[in-house]
Amino acid sequence: MTSEQLWINYKEKDNREAKDELIIRYVPLVKIIAGRLYNNYNAHIEFDDLLGYGVIGLIDAIDKFDHTKNIKFETYANIRIRGAIIDQIRHMDWIPRSTRQKYRKIEEVIEKLQKIYGFDISDELVAEEMGLSLEEYSKLLGEVTTYAIISLEEKIDDNSNFDIKSKNIEFQPEDKYVDEEMKTILTQIISKLPEKEKMVLQLYYYSELTYKEIAEVLSISESRVSQIHTKAISKLKISLEEIV
Fold it and tell me: How far apart are the first and last CA of the chain?
């Protein structure tokens, strides 16, 4: 049976079996999204847990999806599934207070230097401002990478249904306006980043490469990719806080 017929059977005929079949049919989408997020959180959460949260988001998406609209379900579900997983992760509050404090300190220093030198701030400059050696600063960036990603996602989520790598929008006109505005703001901020930081963001979010794959493309270490990524998203979050 086609997906179109399943939607008709469920939405117009309230057929429970059609809903079950839709869930089964789109579970692979949940696995893709959960797998992507697992790359960020694997040290702190089980993949099966992420998958479970994602299925909850999938069911919610199926219940709320309007099949009469000219929008692909995958487009709508991507936001719902990802949002459900991230919401659950946020509620777990498993990130140590010390990690949050370290990241906020980095943010404060980058924000200060950014106002003076713009977006092209060297690691040496940030390390010096923090009173750390370059080695100590690099290690610190590695420690806060996961929280940096969550922090940016929370900031975006608080202001929009926008997904950093997605062109997806919700159905309501006001949501579309907010998403388009957020998309424009992020595009403008990213365009100001140093070339290597832009490249890492592009390869990570749009091309969906792993740190290992990005390292091979850019001929640098995985840890260096992680550091560049952390710096880039810190700048994005700082800039978003100044604008929205």
Answer: 46
CATH number of 3-92: 1.10.1740.10
Cβ atoms of 215 and 199 closer than 8 Å: no
Question: pLDDT (tens digit, 9 = 90+) per residue, 146-201?
Answer: 777 767 766 666 555 444 444 443 434 334 434 566 677 778 888 889 999 999 98
CB half-sphere exposure, 43, CA atoms < 13 A: 9
CATH fourth-level superfamily of 97-243 = PhyR, sigma-like (SL) domain (1.20.140.160)
Let me know: does 124 contact 134? Beta carbons within 8 Å. Answer: yes
Q: Lowest mean pLDDT: which of 15-24, 121-130, 167-176? A: 167-176
* Coil/strand/helix, residue 155: helix
Long-range contacts of 37-41 (CB under 8 A, 24+ apart): 37/82, 37/85, 37/86, 37/89, 39/210, 39/211, 40/146, 40/149, 40/150, 41/89, 41/146
